[in-house]
Specification:
Blueprint: E1 2-11, E2 14-24, E3 29-33, H1 40-47, E4 55-59, E5 66-69, H2 81-86, H3 92-108, H4 115-135, H5 138-149, H6 166-180, E6 184-188, H7 196-208, E7 212-216, H8 220-226, E8 229-234, E9 237-241, H9 245-280, H10 287-299, E10 328-337, E11 340-350, E12 355-360, H11 366-374, E13 380-385, E14 391-394, H12 408-413, H13 424-430, H14 447-458, E15 465-469, H15 477-489, E16 493-497, H16 501-504, E17 510-515, E18 518-523, H17 526-532, H18 539-549, H19 554-559, H20 574-612, H21 621-654
Parallel strand pairs: 3-7, 3-8, 5-6, 6-7, 12-16, 12-17, 14-15, 15-16
Antiparallel strand pairs: 1-2, 1-4, 8-9, 10-11, 10-13, 17-18
Helix pairs in contact: 3-4, 4-5, 4-21, 5-6, 9-10, 20-21
């Protein structure tokens, strides 16, 4: 579908890509992997047409649409969330023209068995489905489903976008791209601003509904679940594997080991041959054998071992000055914005040397409590930091706060004091900013490079309490492992805010769960926490939050007992039991009705697809329109079934019937 041919990119006479070739096929789901600065984001920009290569080309067939989500973007704040999402459907006139043109081609062509004809049919069906969705009420349903999947509530739809943080506005842009249903999706770190439930929803969307996908992500679980192909970028070259990331890691190591063994065997063969030639070069009786060996040596195709990028981050936090026994003591701490209570009753003590995690859905107060500890915002209750506590704070947007017009060297030079200024070049070198890299402007650095630079500033003076808010965003997988080990080796106290289960595993010994306006302590690591909560993953935390916030009818609120326990069958009167049974029965019938509709539509689609498989029906555009309409009906029926099932589960949980 998209062909990358002889692609080369140079920056300041340094080669980033060197004569790269590969093809993005329909339904490919490609993970671009490599160290920070290898060129992953640059590759996406070139494919999207936002940046030109030094040489080579990117061939995108006519009619193929491309959607691109960058790591950072500037968004407008002039309308509501829903209105901004509706902009995804602003190109309907152009789509109708494209559909008319393709239908004309279908009527004129006779190469029914060719791949090009099959691709044209697929594009007609997809575009017809899209127009059918947007012409009817399906467009609004799709907007609601997409925004809800990405974490917005229905109450958020009419709020102006200016009320949302940059991360939430990135979700709006992601929603617009997904609603456009482009043929090729280019996603640069799409999970950085998503909580776990939204990541799960996006995974499902990309697997079931997206066409071709090319993504950059350092979330191992996400790329494993989504991708079926891995392209490694290393030292200007690419290595293409038709497997997901976990299998790629194994195959990559095997490739290097096989090359090394073959190289060593060949080197031994060459050495033996050269030794024979030198030993018998001047013996007349061996002249024939010597000449034969010389010719044999000349014909050998020398094996080259792929150059391996061995550069890595050298990260070690300075020794922590001794603090008091309890660096953080919270007693009934609460924070509210107007009538909205973020959390209340937070009471806990963090001991010296402990490493703890703050986990929970976005917006539940993790970063807010960190800001309370830092003294950046007012709060209610008592929150004390212990004797001689020196805090090192890495904020979520720390990398974005850097001055883009400064060079790497000047960024550190401006904050370094004393003797440390004489060692700036050594420090930068340890963080992989060697040679000419120290003279780069910050604005041209990749997201991971900016994060590393922000981390250097954190290390310039010794601290004994590290507070790290999503420190792994934009870091490649190898650097994440190095950071994790450095935190484990740090002899001070650590608070980590993160959604990355793999990063937290083996790092923390205590977990604080944020949800439903409460902060709950759980002793043990992240997997002990999950086991005690009887959860398979942190996704269940997000569902619990939804259940707590579900609005109840006025009658239910009025009749609800004053204690905080959920009502069960033993406490209900006869009349209440009858009302409960009627309510649950209606919900069950609603689910069953949705399942019946789904089965009926699926049967109609199967019958229609059997008809379309015959050559005489291949050019009947009315059948494709009917097929697209049925697919949309099925999607809407599935959405209604999901909502009905959620409603039934909430009712059963409310009445203790689960």
């Amino acid at each position: 579908m998209i062909s990358i041919r002889n692609l080369s990119v140079e920056f300041s006479a340094k080669s980033l890509f060197d004569n790269i070739n590969y093809v993005i096929n329909r339904r490919d789901r490609i993970a671009l992997v490599g160290k920070n600065g290898a060129g992953k984001s640059t590759m996406l920009k070139i494919i999207a047409g936002l940046q030109q290569p030094t040489s080579g080309s990117v061939a995108v067939p006519s009619g193929v649409t491309v959607g691109y989500l960058p790591q950072h973007m500037t968004t407008e704040d002039t309308c509501s969330v829903a209105d901004e999402a509706r902009k995804a459907f602003s190109d309907m006139a152009e789509m109708r023209e494209d559909l008319e043109r393709m239908n004309t081609q279908l009527a004129e062509r006779t190469d029914y068995e060719s791949d090009e004809y099959s691709e044209l049919i697929e594009r007609v069906a997809a575009l017809t489905e899209r127009l059918a969705m947007e012409d009817g009420s399906g467009g609004e349903a799709e907007i609601e489903k997409t925004l809800t999947g990405l974490g917005f509530t229905r109450e958020d739809f009419n709020r102006p976008t200016c009320e949302f943080s940059g991360g939430w506005r990135m979700r709006i842009e992601l929603a617009k791209i997904l609603l456009r249903r482009p043929d090729v999706l280019l996603l640069d770190e799409p999970t950085n601003h998503l909580d776990i439930e939204s990541i799960q929803w996006l995974e499902n969307f990309l697997v079931t509904k997206a066409g071709a996908v090319v993504l950059v992500s350092h979330d191992r679980a996400f790329i494993d679940n989504v991708t079926n192909r891995t392209i490694e970028i290393s030292l200007g070259k690419i290595y293409d594997y038709a497997v997901n990331y976990s299998k790629y890691v194994v195959l990559h190591q095997e490739r290097i080991e096989q090359q090394m063994r073959a190289y060593q065997n060949q080197q031994k063969q060459i050495a033996d041959t050269e030794e024979f030639i030198e030993r018998f070069r001047y013996k007349a009786t061996k002249s024939v054998q010597v000449q034969s060996r010389i010719k044999q040596l000349a014909k050998i195709e020398r094996i080259e071992v792929d150059e391996v990028d061995t550069s890595h981050l050298s990260l070690k936090f300075p020794p922590a000055p001794r603090s008091g026994d309890y660096p953080v003591i919270a007693d009934n701490v609460a924070k509210a914005y107007g009538a909205h209570t973020v959390f209340s009753g937070a009471t806990f003590t963090i001991k010296r040397g402990e490493k703890v995690a703050f986990v929970g859905k976005n917006g539940e107060g993790k970063s807010t409590l960190v800001k309370c500890i830092m003294g950046e915002i007012p709060y209610d209750g008592a929150l004390k930091t212990g004797h001689n506590v020196k805090i090192g704070y890495f904020a979520q947007n720390q990398a974005q706060l850097l001055d883009g017009d400064l060079t790497v060297f000047d960024t550190i030079d401006r904050v370094a004091v004393g003797d440390i200024r004489t060692k700036i070049r050594d420090i930068l070198g340890a963080f992989m900013f060697g040679g000419e890299a120290i003279d780069k402007k910050v604005k041209v650095l990749s997201g991971g490079e900016k994060t590393r630079l922000a981390m250097i500033r954190l290390l310039l003076e010794p601290v004994n309490l590290l507070i790290l808010d999503e420190p792994t965003n934009h870091l490649d997988m190898r650097t994440k492992d190095i950071l994790k080990q450095a935190i484990k080796d740090f002899d001070g106290t650590v608070i980590v805010v993160s959604h990355d289960r793999e990063f937290l595993d083996g790092l923390v010994e205590k977990v604080y769960e944020f949800g439903g306006g409460q902060v709950r302590e759980c002793l043990g690591g992240i997997y002990e926490f999950l086991e005690k909560k009887k959860l398979a993953s942190l996704q269940e935390l997000e569902r619990n939050k939804k259940t707590v916030q579900t609005a109840q009818p006025a009658e239910a609120v009025k009749d609800k007992p004053q204690n905080t326990d959920q009502p069960n069958a033993a406490r209900l009167s006869y009349q209440e039991k009858k009302e409960r049974d009627r309510t649950v029965s209606r919900a069950e019938k609603k689910v069953a009705g949705c399942e019946t509709d789904i089965a009926r539509i699926e049967a109609e689609i199967a019958a229609l697809e059997e008809t379309l498989a015959s050559p005489e029906s291949a050019a009947d555009t009315d059948l494709y329109t009917q097929h697209a309409t049925l697919r949309k009906q099925l999607e809407n029926a599935m959405s209604l079934w999901e909502l009905a099932s959620m409603e039934l589960d909430e009712l059963k949980e409310k009445y203790g019937l689960l």
